[in-house]
Amino acid sequence: xxxxxxxxxxxxxxxxxxxxxxxxxxxxxxxxxxxxxxxxxxxxxxxxxxxxxxxxxxxxxxxxxxxxxxxxxxxxxxxxxxxxxxxxxx
Length: 90
Description:
This protein starts with a strand and ends with a helix.
């Protein structure tokens, strides 16, 4: 079974401007999935490519406008296995 959800990739700036992290968050009609944190965008993209091989990682912006920002947002349909591989949990 596949679930349609809003998948968002965020760049999050910590208390010091040098510290950045990246996260994936999923939103469906029924609930919001817990955010999954990554220390680098490359790590996040590797997990995303592994979980969703058809996903084109070039669609994710590598530019952050200072402060926290959304690098990608779309509404793909993902299987429960793909959600699990991304680390997204209810």
